[in-house]
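REVIEWER CHECKLIST
Item 1: Sequence provided? yes
Item 2: Single chain? yes
Item 3: Sequence as submitted:
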Amino acid sequence: MNPKLHPPSVRNRNNRERIRMMSNKSRLALWLTFLQLTLLLTGCWDSVELNRRAIVSGVSIDRGPTEDTKYKLSFQVIVSEEISGENARSTSPVALYTGSGRSMYEALSSASSQTARFLSLGHIRVIVISEAFAREGIKDIMDVLERESDMRLTSLIFISHGQEAVQTMSTMTVFSKIPSNDLVEKLDTTSKLFGYNFRVEVDDVVRGIQMNGGGPIINGVYVSGNLEKADSNDNVKTIAPQSILRIAEIAAFKGDKLKGWLDGSTAIGTSLLHNTIRQYPVLLEEGGGYSAFSIYKSQVKVSAEGGDAEHPVIRIKVTQQAALKESTNGKDLTQPRVLTGLADQLTAKCRSQIEAAIAAARKLESDYLGFGEAVERSHPRGWKKVKDRWDQIFRECEIVIEADTVIRHTDMRSRAFEMNR
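Item 4: Structure as written out by the authors:
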């Protein structure tokens, strides 16, 4: 019988059957495709459950006494039960595990054998390197920190000043249960308000080591007071803590080796040239009294001028603003000439700080100030010819300092406080 002669109901039924068969085949093909894709997916072969991890917040790296124990690593591990308050046992909020070995990885393995959990390095905030290791060289250490996939390049680097680095990892602090967090917060506070210290991360140190003729500058840290009581909860139970974790001077490097420490005006001038200082105090003594200022909004530009890269002129332009905080010398601060005279003294002070920083860098024979980078930016071709002799050129090149200071306000008073007699 001719299909065309089928009644409409029969033809519709046949069409529905064909559509149903095609739909079933499409579904089967789709499921087969999904199954093939799942075979290509990889699982987390090295996954570790959270309750099996020990979160490391800080690491100290000390120089061991022998080559077999060259690396002495101490890991500050957070005790989560004490931090969260759940199932707390009134014990220390952190625990310290130390391992040693011929390499950093071997020391890590040694420390891991002492804890029931896997040491998790992805949350490290602070890395403290001993002064002994810094003077010997930190290139290999930085290679490991940059190479390790679990480490963060934003971790802060410190140099332990005059002590073993482990001391900073085992000091209980008042304002934070975790000593590493306390150190980070102290650095943020001093960098914003009171001084020359600023954030130095792993990546900053790696780039500083690669600087021709120069090196990185790294914040120092040390523990003052009774070191025997530092790791006890009793240290934070008294009004006056017996041991205090402190931000110290600045460690100046050439390449990967520590050359010396910078403090006072030398450190301030160095931070100014790096354009990292935010606010710092200045005291001017005159006439049996003094005027104390807060210097803020400092902007520094370093450039190299001259057509000859072998005889560059390093030009430093500094602009800064100041606010009067104290005045005990009876000056009439309503007079413009008085404020102008004080601003000139602040400018001279700034110039002397920068000169002190340059003199210290030349004495240490390290261009950690970045003058060579300024020459390279201005004369890239000439720099290739002189970079191998930059140490000598750095000691002799001409430096011009242009500084300007503006006193913006005197806070809530324009005259010194006077008593009626």
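Item 5: Key structural point noted by reviewer: DSSP finds 13 helices and 13 strands in the chain.
Item 6: Recommendation: ____
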